[in-house]
TrEMBL record:
InterPro entries: PRTase-like, PRTase_dom, Pur/Pyrimidine_PRTase, PuR_N, PurR_Bsub, WH-like_DNA-bd_sf, WH_DNA-bd_sf
Family: Belongs to the purine/pyrimidine phosphoribosyltransferase family. PurR subfamily.
Domain Phosphoribosyltransferase residues, every copy: 115-257
Assembly: Homodimer.
Organism (species): Halobacteroides halobius (strain ATCC 35273 / DSM 5150 / MD-1)
GO molecular-function terms, A-Z: DNA binding
Name this protein carries in UniProt: Pur operon repressor
Length: 274
């Protein structure tokens, strides 16, 4: 039995949103729903209009024999500001203050709904960079990077702190952590990343930028082009980081260990959104 238009639109929307950035031919829809191309095109026009009006993403049509339709997930500027305001509010909780002036973030990083939204925020920012891979450092960077990779429909590559025999030949470098000035090691399997790939690096936290600088140096060993570096939270101090170009979402301005106060704010590009 043929579907009613309302039912078919729901099904088409589900297929598109489950496959971000994937080009799907109109023939797939016509065969699955036993409908003419003109009918499917009308359905897609309705979906495209609603997504555009509600700022839920873009539906793009690619013409030609190898063409089709694809869904580009994105967040509207209002939604982005609301998501980041929520992160700031939750990070400001005094119960998060840890000894040494650190703040507890693990519950936020492993919150699937929140990280899904954060992934779409980064994906909106990085939509036009045409990257091949998302790169991160184990372990807390993985949930954020995975959601960015999901939103951009890209493979995720995780750099390890120690090489594993199960990964074969690896490239390892030493780097100096920005905060403690300790020498650490990071490794990546040679087969994990083809040379000369375009990559986006994602990390959860940046203080002086030592880990980020290490990841940039490791990418240079693979002759990779780093098109951007995304960070969930950066500290206001030190002001001068070991890396110059990056995109952060939240700035940690101060942690008062005595008063148990945390001051955070959205980063400058978030604040500039309308």
């Amino acid at each position: 039995m043929k579907m009613r238009r309302s039912e078919r639109i729901v099904a088409v929307t589900k297929i598109l949103t489950d496959n971000p950035y994937k080009l799907i031919s109109l023939n797939r829809f016509t065969e699955r729903f036993d409908a003419a191309k003109s009918t499917i095109s009308e359905d897609l026009a309705i979906i495209k209009g609603v997504f555009s009006k509600e700022k839920m993403g873009r539906v793009e049509t690619v013409s030609g024999a190898a063409g089709g339709v694809r869904f580009i997930p994105s967040k509207g500027e209002g939604d982005i500001k609301e998501i980041i305001r929520d992160v700031c509010k939750r990070l400001s909780n005094s119960d998060r203050v840890l000894p040494g002036g650190y703040i507890y973030m693990t519950d936020l990083i492993f919150d699937p709904e929140l990280m899904s939204n954060i992934g779409k925020v980064f994906a909106t920012k990085f939509a036009d960079l045409e990257a091949d891979y998302i790169i991160t450092m184990e372990t807390k960077g993985i949930p954020i990077a995975l959601m960015v990779a999901r939103a951009l429909n890209l493979p995720l590559v995780s750099i390890r702190r120690n090489s594993r025999v199960t990964e074969g030949s690896v490239v390892s470098i030493n780097y100096v952590t920005g905060s403690s000035q300790k020498i650490e090691t990071m490794s990546l399997a040679r087969r994990a990343l083809p040379e000369e790939s375009k990559v986006i690096i994602i990390d959860d936290f940046m203080k002086a930028g030592g880990t980020a600088k290490g990841m940039l140096d490791l990418m240079a060993e693979f002759k990779a082009e780093v098109v951007d570096l995304g960070v969930l939270v950066e500290t206001a101090n030190p002001k001068d980081k070991l890396v110059d170009d990056y995109t952060s979402l939240v700035i940690l301005e101060e942690v008062d260990k005595v008063k148990r106060e945390i001051v955070v704010k959205p980063s400058s590009w978030i604040q500039e959104l309308n």
